[in-house]
Amino acid sequence: MKRVHEIVNPVVMGNEESMYELFAHLRDEEPVAYFDHPDFEPFWVLTRHQDIKHVSQKNDVFINNPRTIIVQRAFEQMLLEQFGTRNGLETLIHMDNPKHRELRGVTREWFKPSPIGRLTPMIESIAKEHVDKMQALGGTCDFVSDISLHYPLRVIMSIIGVEPEEEGMMLKLTQELFGSEDPEQGRGGDLSDRMSVLMDFFAYFKNVVEDRKKNPSDDLASVLANAMVGGKPMEELDQISYFIITATAGHDTTSATIGGGLKALMEFPDQLRKLQEDPSLLKSAAKEMIRWVSPVRHMMRTCTEDVEFHGQKVRSGESLALWYPSANRDARAIANPDSFDVTRDNREQLAFGYGGHMCLGQHLAVLEVECFFRELLPRLESIELAGDPQWVRAVFVGGLKSLPVRYKLN
């Protein structure tokens, strides 16, 4: 029986066990599956590592516009009417060359390893604040809602230049955006509620742009607000879209990785001991956590010519959904993919994407994860689950929303 229709079910995708069971089935039985549903424009589903990597390498054959993530047909129409595109606010993930190359260049220097490395003392300080908070909570907490949601948020807001008192609002908007299908996180059940979340983001960052144009400083907000593209000031819609993707993806995905990473260390206690005995493994452990969680579930590409996968013809103009968590558990490309291994060489993992659209913030994400566990693990004497973990019901970006733990810190 074909099961590809389950790929848009937030209940299936909002549970680690059911999501990976579905991916295993699709990789083996339906590696190139056609999704046709009255609520969505049709698309093809790719779940094997080699296919997803191949598509990601060929940005001229498989383009990001006009569809970048899976949304309902009716919402695509609303975005088209509001913004003039089916993607709505056009961020870096929605763009093709040459525009993508030009706008990516605006912050490329900011996100290179050397400039990111200079942020280490600031990130270490924020990591210590949050491990200290764990200690102050007295040995029990919900690690996600108390710790892992807030630590990367503080980091990226510091980099952008958002005031600490506005972080709660930014967290709520991000959860409403990425968790729109989750009854505990979405703003409401109507598509208009999703649009109102986007418009709230737009209004907030419009004010930030105007402020940094008048009062520039050394933060990333000032870089974006005063950027020149092709010899002209960056267009306002591009600026605000840039802010939104940086502010949301810049913390939510890292939060998911840290929460899922701690859960993995509890499930694989030998790996926890290995890290505590050899902290030099923390960087590779951070990359393994990112593979293990793969918080960005999918992206879409549209074919500019007829192509073929495993004997199945995909025609020009048709769209493909690339499923990164599935690629990162594909034994055809990754040895023992269902084992969490902090010594793994993760050059083949695709959690950051691949090719020209590889995540701009990848070095920052690895550093944040590494710094947090570098602070936590030497102080951690014991840790165990204190309740059942829960996941966000989400098809695009997902991870844990609750991880009750009991622990002892020194």
From TrEMBL:
Pfam families from the UniProt entry? p450 (PF00067)
Q: Which UniProt keywords apply?
A: Heme, Iron, Metal-binding, Monooxygenase, Oxidoreductase
Q: Does the keyword Heme apply?
A: yes
This protein's source sits in the domain of life called Bacteria
Keyword Isomerase annotated: no
Report the sequence similarity comment from the record. Answer: Belongs to the cytochrome P450 family.
Q: What is this protein called?
A: Cytochrome P450
